[in-house]
Each structure stands twice: as C-alpha cells, then as structure tokens.
Write a structure and sequence with these properties.
By secondary structure, the chain is an alpha/beta fold. It is built from twelve helices and ten strands. The strands form two sheets. Strands 3-4-5-6-7-8-9-10 form an eight-stranded parallel beta sheet. A two-stranded antiparallel ribbon has the order 1-2. Helix 3 links the parallel strand 3 and strand 4. Helix 3 packs parallel to helix 4, helix 4 crosses helix 5 and helix 6 packs across helix 7. The longest helix has 17 residues. It is globular and about 55 Å long.
Length: 341
Amino acid sequence: MSTSATSRHASLPAIPATTTQRAEILAKTSAMVGAGPALGISAMGEGANGKADMEGREVERKYSLEMDIELADGRAMPAIQLGVYEMSEEEAGKAVEWALEAGYRGVDSASLYDNEKAAGSAITTYLARKPDSLAVHFTTKLRPETPPSQVSADIANSLSLSTLPAISLYLLHAPYGGPKARLNSWLAVCEAITSGNVLSGGVSNFGLRHLQELIDARPRYLPVVNQIELHPFNYRTRLPLVEFCRRNGIVIQAYAPLVRGERMQNETLKAIAGKKGCSVAQVLVRWGLQKGFCVLPKSVKKERILENCNVSWFDLSDKDMEELDGLDEGLCTDWNPLNCE
C-alpha cells in the first residue's frame, strides 16, 4: 500500500472518509489487515532500475523514520513519532527541535501536557527554515473531562496555540464522562474534520466497550487511531483490544513504549539487546514497529532521541518476539481508563 507525499501535508484541506468511504478503504486492505499489521510505506517514485530499485528502497525505509502507517481515512502518519508527555515548554521545544533535525516527522502532544505552543512553535520554525521538508504530523488531544459543549473551543485553542494550519490527528484523550458525553464529544471532532481544522480523528485510552459504542452510533466518521499504553509487559493482556482495533481498521498508537524506563534491567530485554548489539530502548521500539503499532518514544535528551529512532539496521526474529511477548505482567505505568464507565 502507498500514499503520495502530498497526502501527508498538514496545509492541505481535509480529505476525510465517511463511514461508507471507510468501509471501501478497509475492503481494499482487508487481506493485509487479516494477515497481521497493516503497514504502509510512502510512495517512492520509480528509480533508474525500475521495480527492483523501488523494492530496495522500500526495504531501507521499513522500520525507519521514513516509514508510514496508513489510516482508514486514506491518510498516513509516521510510524515513529516523538512523545512530549510531562515535558515543560522549554523541554518540549528543544526535544521537538532535535527530533525534527534528526528526521522525525511526527510529534504527539495534548492539551493536558501544556506544551502545545512550544511543540507547534518548534515545528513552525523548522518548516520555515526548511520549506522543502515534508510537513510534520502533529497530534494533540482533548483535555480529559472537558464538557462536550466545550470540545470545539478546545480544538480551536489547540490550533491557535500550535500556530499550525491544521491538526493532523486529534484524539479524545480519555473515555471519561459516560456514553453520551463520549459520543457528543466525538461528534464535535467529526465537525472539526468536516471543517478542515482536524485532518484525522481518533481516541486514546478507549476500551472495547467504548469503541463499540462509537461504532454502533454510526457517526459520519469513525476513529482511525486508538492510543494506549502498550509494550511487551502488557501486550498479551491487551491483545483482545489490539485485535478488535485491527478488525475495525483502527491503528494502535503505543504510548510509553519504553515502559517509562521501569523495565530497562529486565534480563530478557538485556539479553536480546546484547545479542543484537543495540540498546534495550531500541529493542522495545523495534518490537512495537514489528507488531504494526505507531510508537511514541519520549526523551528530553538529544542522544536518546537519536538512539530511539535508529532501529532499521537489526531485526527481531520470531523467537525474539515470542520471548518479548512472554514478558506480559499486565503492567500499567500510569493511568488506566480502559474499563471506566
């Protein structure tokens, strides 16, 4: 599957997929989704050696910062993005600057983080210096427990703070408030997609019941992303949710892919990292990519930002992946709203 570079540009008008259009898109990709993760590599153009040249380039791009994941609305987003959770404005600004210079093309922020302005400013400054660069995919989220009547205002505020022409991906940050509030909040996101202020819409920390409620309500647009905490230490516990999302064309974004540093001394992780000649963090990022997730590694240190994305030069075997999957302990390093009412 492929998408043109221009389809990722944040300054273009929205090209949303209605529920009917989404079904058509999913039908085209059902074979890939049914077989496992639906991973999209951006279009490359024909090289001097034709097809063979393109195939070689695709191998180089896979599991690198150039790798894209296709969304059910026909858009695409970078498979590796920088998370800026719990960063101050100053930290977020520097981290985004370093990440963009290193080749990152996506940044994940939120109204709750209070750093949308710094992240957006760093993106705008970078693109002004390098006008020929591909646009940066900017994600932000609704502040939890915002009344549905205030969602449109919250979106407008995030857009104003970021100073970007549109929000690439806007998420409901948590499923708090009950079924009616969730649906009405989501309908406000749908309005923002229609207006073009938001290009793609999704959710975060939504469990099976929350997602099924939205699907059953048959809104004009359905979520294309569910962002949840996901890593080897909770993967099998959350596998039913992961599989539900795949069946319904919802891409998983994995936050806290590095387990917030809480399992860096795990013996299995250290053994695999030693065998590959890489860091434990790189093993965790590569695991998430091979599972088909969009991963959001976070760091305020330049060298870690560079290291975390450098995972295309090694691979994890089936045995490695099985060993990592076996680390599950149902671990949540932060909040867990997946089962809230």
